[in-house]
Specification:
single chain, 496 residues, Leucine Aminopeptidase, subunit E, domain 1, Aminopeptidase
């Protein structure tokens, strides 16, 4: 969908639909909504007084103009209670009303700046409208006909021409954030027979070529010479060759320092010899959501061009059972020299991240943020709405939490108590890859901490929100692209 900002009077716009809004428990209309109501002979006010338009968040009421306006219909989007209105609410409302209008065969829509004047900066508000609209309309249709035509054009109409340049900046950033998130969604939604480690590497190369990023992919022979026993150990059971993918953005030529974003890239996780139950195993194509997020974030960062240096690292492999597969009881040696007793081959993400984090430390990347669909335990603890935050540096954790707050992505900081390390002590190696059944997300984070040393580091366990089984606001069924926008906002904040 193309999004344009234009100066003019929305009442005069010819479109399939004009989108206005109402707040809950407010019968008195104002601004453009009141003007459109007047043009419709008070129809909107009448429906509000009858309780047919309530203004509840997510509600979309449709009023046919019957020739009284150039547009075919007016959609009244509910924004909820005025005191609860936020940028995140705007994103969600935009995603919802765009999907509703798509179902009504609307191909060209025009919208007001909803909530303008409610103490939210206009540039931020229009960014949320663009972002939420594009994300809400996202669909993965590579292998089927969706049965509908998408909205082709959205006009954001503002009467004051002096505001147009600022609004265009907001739309540009919103589009970049949404399109990069959609890239991550596409990667995660792809079936694993297409989205292999090799294909992830090819996509990274395509991103690098298009956006002038530095790209390098290491193969098995490189990993052997680098001592990456964790990544090679997990890859042993698959015929698909593993890749260690790197993408680098250089936005600050005066500095040699760079932030490190590390994303788990298990393109299919059967559990290996410790095989998962067959029910819902098809969903395990999403175990590379962290890798997809860091690659997509680099694309957005390259387009926004902040003065900061960032490198993304993705250890990519499959985790399958076979005659050559890793076995419980095996011992691996990670790149930093630590030996790992494998208790459960389904705790494979931390094994490949051990090498990726070790490599990031060797490259002197700092700070480090890793994203991984790492543990079912985090999903049990926080549900499907929140990612867990684990860190060895509170200042960095606060910056990540602040970046997430800007994007509406939900994070919850978890403890990393030293005493829980007892669970991952091994009798025959430096460390083992799982503890007991309690506190599994914490012990997984403590395992990763062994490979970052003193480098400031945040681990995001995105197992819960990486995929969704329902539509809500700008979230659609399937992959969510969680983490992309938070990483981009973090890079922007560190640049400033």
């Amino acid at each position: 969908m193309e999004i344009k900002v234009i100066a003019g009077d929305i009442i005069l716009i010819e479109a399939d639909a004009v989108i206005v809004s109402s707040f809950e428990a407010e019968e008195q209309l104002s601004g453009v909504t009141a003007a459109i109501d007047k043009a419709l002979d008070g129809t909107i006010s009448h429906l509000i007084s009858r309780g047919e338009i309530k203004g509840k968040f997510g509600e979309v009421a449709v009023v046919h103009t019957l020739g009284k306006l150039p547009s075919r219909i007016v959609a009244v989007a509910g924004l909820g209670k005025r005191q609860d209105f936020t940028v995140e609410k705007m994103r969600g409302a935009a995603g919802g009303f765009c999907r509703s209008l798509r179902k009504l065969n609307c191909h060209k829509v025009a919208t007001i700046l909803h909530g303008a004047g409610d103490e939210i900066e206009l540039e931020v508000l229009v960014e949320a409208i663009a972002e939420g609209s594009l994300l809400g309309l996202y669909s993965f249709n590579q292998y089927k006909n969706p049965g509908y035509q998408d909205i082709e054009e959205m006009l954001i109409v503002e009467e004051d021409e002096s505001k147009i340049l600022a609004l265009e900046r907001g739309v540009r950033k919103g589009k970049i954030m949404a399109e990069s998130t959609a890239l991550a969604r596409d990667m995660v939604n792809e079936p694993s027979n297409y989205m292999t480690p090799t294909r992830m590497s090819e996509l990274a190369k395509e991103i690098a070529d298009k956006h002038a990023l530095k790209f390098k992919a290491f193969d098995s022979e490189d990993m052997k010479s680098m001592g990456m026993g964790g990544l090679l150990g997990v890859a042993k059971g698959s015929n698909e060759p593993p890749k260690l993918i790197t993408l680098s953005y250089k936005g600050d030529e005066q500095s040699d320092s760079a932030i490190g974003f590390i994303g788990k890239g298990v393109t299919f996780d059967s559990g290996g010899i410790s095989i998962k139950p067959s029910e819902h195993m098809e969903e395990m194509k999403d175990d590379m959501a962290g890798g997809a997020a860091v690659m997509a974030a680099l694309k957005a960062i390259a387009e926004l061009k902040p003065k900061v240096n960032v490198t993304a690292i993705v250890p990519a492999t499959e985790n399958l059972p076979s005659g050559t597969a890793l076995k419980p009881g095996d011992i691996l040696k990670a790149m930093n020299g630590k030996t790992i007793e494998v208790i459960n081959t389904d705790a494979e993400g931390r094994l490949i991240l051990a090498d990726a984090l070790s490599y990031a430390v060797e490259q002197k990347l700092s700070p480090l943020v890793d994203l991984a669909t790492l543990t079912g335990a985090c999903r049990v603890a926080l549900g499907t709405g929140y990612s867990g935050v684990f860190s060895n540096n509170q200042q960095l954790a606060d910056k990540v939490l602040g970046a997430a707050a800007k994007t509406g992505e939900k994070l919850w900081q978890m403890p990393v108590p030293e005493e829980y390390k007892e669970q991952i002590k091994s009798e025959i190696a430096d460390i083992k890859n799982t503890g007991d059944r309690y506190g599994g997300a914490i012990t997984a984070a403590l395992f990763l901490a062994e490979f970052v040393g003193d480098t400031p580091w945040v681990h995001l366990d995105i197992a819960g929100p990486a995929s969704s089984n329902k539509e809500s606001g700008y979230i659609v069924k399937g992959a969510t692209g969680v983490g992309v926008r938070t990483l981009v906002e973090l890079a922007l904040s560190l640049a400033s």
